[in-house]
Amino acid sequence: MADDPLVIFTPSGKRGRVPAGTPVLEAARKLGVDLDSVCGGRGICSKCQVAPGKGAFPKHGVTVAEDALTGINAVEERYDRIRGLKPGRRLGCQARIQSDVVIDVPPESQLHRQVIRKSASERVMVMDPAVRPFYVEVVEPDLDDPTGDFQRLSMALEEQWQIKGLRADLEVLARIQKVLRKGEWKVTAVVWDDGRQPPQLIDLIPGLLDGPLYGLAIDLGSTTIAGHLVALDDGRVLASSGLMNPQIRFGEDLMSRVSYAMMNPGGAEEMTAAVRDGLGHLATALAEEAGVEPARITEAVVVCNPVMHHLMLGIDPVELGQAPFAPATSDALVLKARELGLKIAPPARAYVLPIIAGHVGADAAAVVLSEQPQKSETPVLIVDVGTNAEIVLGDRTRVLACSSPTGPAFEGAQISSGQRAAPGAIERVRIDPLTKEPRFRIIGVEAWSDEPGFNEAAKATGITGICGSGIIEAVAEMRMAGLVDPSGLIGSAEQVGTARSVPQGRTHSYVLHDGTAEGGPLITVTQGDIRAIQLAKSALYAGARLLMDEFGIETLDRVVLAGAFGAHISPLHALVLGMIPDCAPERVTSAGNAAGTGARIALCSRAARVEIEDEVRRVTRIETAIAPRFQEHFVAANAIPHATDAYPGLVGQVSLPEVSYNTAGDDRPRRRRR
């Protein structure tokens, strides 16, 4: 009615008239305002705190009287006395509207809170998780109404929270009666509801839940498994950890694992058991690191490539190893987390993102969700660097995707002194082009090896090996210093002018660090290491060029490097190496672990799940295994940086020596003319 009070909510700007005496929380729900509440308006949880305005608001054409809301009542006084209310704040469930009013909903009271978080760049994360707690008061049974306790709980949730069709696993049903009586029929129901399937009772807690629920975002890679423990009230990451994929012992790359499954009866089952065991250990480690009870971890989101997807699910991956590379299923899946080996709340669910094609997986879908190439005005190339590189090229008109079998060299495997990224691993390398002397940084120490304080700081970890970003920079620096020729051959000590080039059989190695005098390792870059990097980077480049061919472009305006160590790869060194097609170095940026970020987005937002499931259907898949030009691009990319592409983006950035160490002629280093 026109005489009813006008209520205006900020920052949403939503407004409407409600009858005098309407609680603020009820008005917010009626107008679709984002105001949180867990206790259902009983003044217990304080999630619905609001800040009413006073005085004139010309923008809204409203003047708010001192008594626009009812006075502070006994419930608010008790809460303020025990826990404290900020000055000017009211509980939305207790304050009632009496006349025109402007009410601000602070960020901490917004149900779908937006959190600005930084990985490689700022992003807005919208909180709309599938798992939420709901405080309810359940009617006790009596002889006249012996309805089951689960039915009573379901009716309470429907009446108080409009949650209909609740279901529960047997393990939860077995606990309901004890919990209801312990809580004196006042309990918090933890409900999983993705908006598309019947809501599921995950847990039941006596009284009001104190503290948030948690979820896991997991990027299951061929070589490493990375995970994040996320608070489901505001999206903050409480713990991050990773471990080597236990399947490594069955083969370092995907096709070797498919072969293992084909050649060994029960091989697929072995690998399934191994990866589930790894997932279980990761979940336990994350819970311990954050000091969180595993029972409070109520959902997981998993992204992975198709072979990992099938082996995790217990599906034989043999069909993925032969044309037409058909997956058993490509849709998104909802499973019980315990079925995947995750040691979290027993009834917790796991959401697995959809896979794009037989060789383009849910990890690529997560990258698309994170980086949003379909919204770019110009074509952007996104490269998720890993054992099985996922490559995406797209703009507003279309999105293409493929995978390329780079192998594990970029992650430190198949490298003579290689190791995973851990304290003590060399992660940065610089080589003086005149003296050929190296300097480096190790993970865990800020100083470079030639700076004061390095030796003392390095004692804590030692100098243990070289990780993925370190080997990339080492090979690129060797090329820039004239230690390696365009074909990838390491010159002898006489040819390159340094005793750090030492014979190794019929080839040579470059000594990066000699710690043998102190009982440490001899860390070298061998000819075999160079070849492994060449094969990996050629596969990566060839995949990217195939997408560019299909897209009809010859140059790139922007490149995004993603992957577990994408944030640590130097754009300049990636270009010198020829990992990616030519692009201005300043236009090559990092997104860090974009697949892991995509998993976190899906964990925090039900709408994001719908979005990526729809987007995946529109992605065009390019199959590198049968593409006619893949081998052509691969062979040309073996050179460093490339046999035929001129790389004009590097001009003015670096000078690459024109050297050759596989001829009998004059092999003295010469600088390439600009």
TrEMBL record:
Domain of life: Bacteria
GO molecular function: iron-sulfur cluster binding
InterPro entries: 2Fe-2S_ferredoxin-like_sf, 2Fe-2S_ferredoxin-type, Beta-grasp_dom_sf, Corrinoid_activation_enz, Raco-like_middle, Raco-like_middle_sf, RACo_C, RACo_linker
Domain 2Fe-2S ferredoxin-type: 5-109
Protein name: Drug:proton antiporter
